[in-house]
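Hi L.,

As promised, Cation/H(+) antiporter:
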Amino acid sequence: MPNSTLVMVLVDLVIIMIAARVFGRLAEKLGQPAVIGEITAGILAGPTLLGPHLSQVLFPPDARPVLSVLANLGVVAFMFLAGLEVDRNSFTNQRAAIPAIATAAYLAPFGFGCLIAATALTRHHTGANTVGFVLFIGCALAVTAFPVLARILVDRNIIRTPIGQMSLACAAIVDAAAWIALAVVLMLVAPTGGHWRWALLAPLAVLVWWGARPVLDRLAAAGTGQQVLVLAIGTALLLAAVTEWIGLHLIFGAFAAGLIFPRAHRDSAENGAVVVSTLLLPAFFAVAGLSVDLGMLDTTGVGELAVVLAAAVGAKIASVVVVGRLAGLDTRTAAALAALLNTRGLTELVILHVGLTAGLTSTSLYSLLVVMALITTAMTAPLLHRIHLPHKPIQSQDFVRTAKAGTRQADID
């Protein structure tokens, strides 16, 4: 790497981290999750505000591949933490309302997303697999941002309430369905030459769940805190590399690593992953934002954004409220649950970026969907206030277990 490129990458990282911190704090002062400000900072670093020329000067072509690698490392850390925070018991929860509501929260926006992809958004089809494009848009509208949702619940001091626990359980199921759907989409559009690797996916999944998980339990139990940290990082990187090699995407391996890592040793694993995520995830916002150009938004685009928002918000909220009421929830609780599950945030951004790099969507539609992710996430706090759900701010923390334990504070904004 030329010396000038290295210098530019380091300068870019400083700019990115400062911008993410400033905009994140500003978002918090406005009653929004910090991720809203951080994503906005990434968008403003691109051609939307700076224009193509200045954006190229600040983030030159030689520096972008390096920033992309660093951004992917940040995403690996984020997805590992997301997997680590999933309560595996959520998937076998016996309360009938949870699987019913989660199914509705996923299938309704997924169906409407597929419908508008096949009708209103056809001009954005890039020539990739048509079925893949339709399913991808459905997946993009269906997702719920589990980590951002957890942050909102922590900030409102309702994470340990029934509505908080129910929303987390539903979000875990919805996100699992979204990742599975995205995996299917990537299989459909994968180059034909590498299809043989997909045959390894099922045996590898069995090996990881029933083979690697017990081994990790024993290794973590025998190691010190520092050794557990190395084990966690190594597991996340290895599984991310395996799924990337298969053609799936590194996010799946990182998420799986967090899912199987021993819960008894979460403190040591989280400490390192939070640091990596803090330093490098803002780079992902910037890399993702460089592909967003809202200056391209014309009258047709505004109409498409309205259609996307109507489908994403209407289907998600209506389905959760209706099924929630049928499952025995009162109207206020069902409405609050719908507002919470309408949060998309960072998880949405990861999915959209995967779709863009896989050639599943145009840059203009990608920009529209990023705006949709911002708006739907920003809607959550005002909707909860409107529903009169109690808001008791507490000191910022980031993940579910942190709030439950109440033993340490973390700030990864």
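The chain has one domain: 73-281+309-404.

Thanks again for sending the construct details.

K.
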